[in-house]
Aminotransferase
Amino acid sequence: RASLNLQVRGLSPSATVAINERSNDLLAAGREVFKLGLGQSPFPVPDSVVEALRAHATRKEYMPVRGLPALREAVAAYHQRGVAGEREYSGDHVLVAPGSKELMFITQLAFYGDLVLPSPAWVSYSPQARIIGRQVVWLPTRADNGWKLTPADVDGLCRRDAGRPRVLILNYPSNPTGQTYDADELAALAEVLRAHEVLVVSDEIYGELHHDGAHTSIARFYPEGTIISSGLSKWCGAGGWRLGTFLFPRELQWLQQAMIAVASETYTSTSAPIQCAAVTAFGFGPDIAAYVAHEQAILKALGGWCHRRLLAGGVACAAPQGGFYLFPDFSGQADALRRRGIAGGEALCERLLEETGVAILPGSDFGRPFGDWTARLAYVDFDGAAALAGHDPAATID
Ligand code: PLP
């Protein structure tokens, strides 16, 4: 008799997907719900990208496993502009998949070694490791350091157990913390990662959505050891279209080749019409650049507004730097909350949803210890189309 594989026993649906379903159930039951749980972009897909999709709606053939050549060229050129350095990337360095989540998963299938994750980190990295039976090494970060990994953290880990092969997933701007790394911080991390030969999967899916200055990739400082992850889901507003991309340096072609083999035996290729539309998105013409600049301005205004409201309520929280998340820490309210029978972040999130309709997620879904008072808030429950048309979402929420 067939039974469950050990690795998936006790596995439940991803926390962000689960909160979305729960919020939808409550909405269907007539309750008012503020969906600050799922990191779903509120912005409509840019018009030119929708038009490209329409123009290719009848494309129905299987695509090359690694991705449509025109798309791979566009993705390479897109990153080339961002990475800035002597590196030359071409379409050969790109792999396309139905979502960067899928690419993360097949990376985990393909490499040999430990997975190193800063804590907190995005919800799915660690369950993916668990499904595959891979060891996760958590590197806790601290609120007073903006939840950022330091070179000393990485160096300490690598020296403790020298010689172990390791892959670090570094995500910035970060889901869940909303923090990002500047060029100096990335350069310092790169030095240590190179010294210990730690391979980096640089999850830059929110790279366009920084609030200030410009986004820098760690690949600029450590090109030979860095894979850059991106996709349409966040900056292009098209999570449900399912398209993610990885950019590999030539030194990591061995990993890319293995992943292509896995892809060929699993998802085969990514939707043909979506890939054709993605050529326009990654082509990053003036209309896309203007669209992204609008997104940045709106998210900056809204994130800043939510942050100020939290501080005004006495809740500790780092100022948002990118993406669309805040990571408040309610430990200052812990005594008062305990008196109301709320023992930690998990209970707090449940009670918030039940009593106020506000859906947020506890920090423990992101690798923080169970019972800790952090939570993730996604400030995306507004009409993105209206915001792009000039209506201030912060004013609407007020
Ligand atoms: N990485 C991070 C940090 C994310 O927040 C998400 C989506 O929420 C993903 C990856 C997955 O994105 P995709 O839609 O490309 O699978």
Residues 39, 99-101, 122, 171, 175, 203, 205, 231, 233, 239, 244 surround pyridoxal-5'-phosphate (CB under 6 Å). The chain has two domains: 6-44+288-397, 56-283.
